[in-house]
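hey can u check if this looks right to u? its 825 residues, i copy pasted from the old doc so theres a chance i mangled smth
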Amino acid sequence: MLRPKVLLRPAWVLSLTAILAACGGGDTQVTENPLPPPAEQPVVNYSGPAPATDDIRHFKEALWDNIATEDRCGACHIQGQQSPTFARNDDINQAYTDINGLVNLARPGDSALVTKVAGGHNCWLSSDSACEDIMATWIGNWASLANAQDTSTDIELQAPVSRAPGSTRNFPASSDLFADTVYPVLNTYCADCHTSSATIPISPYFASADVLEAYEAAKDRLNLDDPASSRVVVRLREQFHNCWSDCDDDAATLSAAISDMAAEIALTELDPQLVHSDALSLYEGVLASGGGRFDSNAIAKWEFKTGSGNQAFDTSGVDPALDLTLSGEYNWVGGYGIQLGNGKAQGTTTASRKLYELIVGTGEFAIEAWVAPANVTQKGPARIVSYSGGRDRRNFTLGQTLYNYDVMLRTENTDVNGEPILSTDDDAEVLQASLQHVVINYSATDGRQIYVNGEYTGDIDDTAPGSLLDWDDSFAFVLGNEVSGDRPWAGTLRMVAIHNRPLNEQAIAGNFAAGVGQKYFLLFGISDIIDIPQSYVMFEVSQYDSYSYLFTEPHFISLQSGVATDIDGVTFEGMRIGINGRESFAGQVYSTLATTVTAAEYDEQNGARLSRQGTIIPLEKGPESDEFFLTFERLGDAEHVRVEPTPSAPAAPQDLTPQSEIGVRNFGEINASMAALTGVPVSNTSVNQAFVSLQQQLPSVTDIESYVAANQMAVTQLAIRYCDTLVEDSSLRQQFFPDFDFSQPASVAFSGEASANIITPLLDNMLKTAIATQASRDDVGDELATLISGLSACNGTASCDAAYTRTITKASCAAVLGSAVMLIQ
């Protein structure tokens, strides 16, 4: 058997051993008081002998108290009934004896209890994965109690089974074959739920009326190489999910349809000339995320692993579970997560009361979330995480306004809506439309604090900390919106947790380093090529979203110690990532790799880094079915001479349509030009407000052929606002028109040669330079004279007073300012 090796301190992540030792014992900065049980927590009656040892007491507190209830394991695995009797209620010491062999305190996720419920054995929830996570959490809590001074959870690398890349069938680009075989079955029997137009739409939408949408959604649920193992078939055959007649017969019908589709797809054979590694699927890797997380005070946690349905399960293991119901516009995201638009995930007020019970008791708490905002234009604030009773009352809220994170918290020193709000600095633009780790701490000493991606933002809470006794226990916990549904947030949530103690800076950095989602270490075996035992190229791989995988941190490593001298001089060149029997058509950033590993740079614990780059590889069949491998142009002494195809001769250049030599000013240039021509500064409140409202309607490019009537309307409106500001400001007006008497009515003010005192300044200031291609000064002057003469006649004008004199001046000014004289360049 290959000897596994423990990756104690990977060079590319924080050293979690020291971090978590600091959090869990010694000079810890976080006091880990036991959680006070909420009123609704199930009670297990026990009157047997006391625990004989501390470890048995830890077993009872962390695991037995949770699994011994009748709705879980206490209905069967008790004395006189089903063996093993690890949930027996007559003797905790005997239950402890019976649990041996069923738990793995070093790797809780590998425990037999966990794998049993993960396979559907008496899961007390509708999601096997939720039961799996909760059971692993309880066993992990036991492990933490059993060794409180060393809560480090270093990741242990295990040698994968050696397997050469196999022949495989790949989905064709066209959906035609799917439409003729599998789609009719799915569309006939699954369209009531698995369509985006259903009354209660449930993703994936593989029964959509749009065949292309259905095809894309179905790919990772179909196994072309083993149709009977397809996820949609297993759901019918083994999990009895909405069978339309007999489940076995229905599963056979769907499996036959997938087989018919697969029969028409040729096998993709691996090129025998390639120098290639062993093959792995994503789930054959070593789980890399979550190791080293600080969750000692987590009272609610949502990891969104279910992937379907309308429930997000609380997997904290703290009863009562605060499960959330999804509604409105939402989608499950591959690699764990939910995408929200105009939707929300909300818990009941009864279950939400757990937060009130466990936070008011400590007087402090932390909100932790991995969030990916859809954009930076959301206002409101849009609600990301909220415990509230409507848009104007809450206990706490984490929200978004443009580039800012906002924190609203009800205390004795804030109002019922949690105001004043603490926001990140506008200029810092901390919030970005990318995946970010956000922590909101609150304590009686430091007040509200915001951390993003492991670092304190530096935003000071000017509101004094206060008691939380004013909290309302009738509110509901909600994600992605307000409980009233009128403050939606658009984005993706990958994980949310509520702690009833603040997280110290070491814990925040550790949780950020631990990452989120389906992240694995994939060890691609190359021992048979370079003749070094247990040697691998190791990648950190995660499902980036529903359409791709992220490959990062390639390292060369051996799981056998004492091989540094053998490693000296191993060459890696032209490394590429293969998927399903062929090299991926995209994401080959390592194809230019050319490096030689030396004994001096190789580290027994961490191996040797091959590249600092990462890349995206398109998802094809889904994480359960996609098979990865590596190819090399040179690996050690093995070499594959890659002959690049001769590029096609470039097409003969074509003459493009001649472009105009003149253009128009864009929105910024127009604003600056009008300010310079009138003397009204751009900072003037009136013109600035007009510019902001008209900015999107003004030309955004200088191409004159793209200029449309709507652009001219905006130019005219902005010109009128500038001229209005110029004429109404007595100082600016006097400076611009020094010889004109604005106190006279229009019929008098513009009589005789007086109109020249308006026309001449306009021409002097707005046609300053004689340009051969612009309108002549005389022509513009004649047009203005005609305009003023017609308006100053006051025919039919209700009032021909001095105010009308200013109006005529504004019109004359705007006629020149908004014309081609200013616009064309």
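Residues 1-43, 149-153 have pLDDT under 50 and may be disordered.
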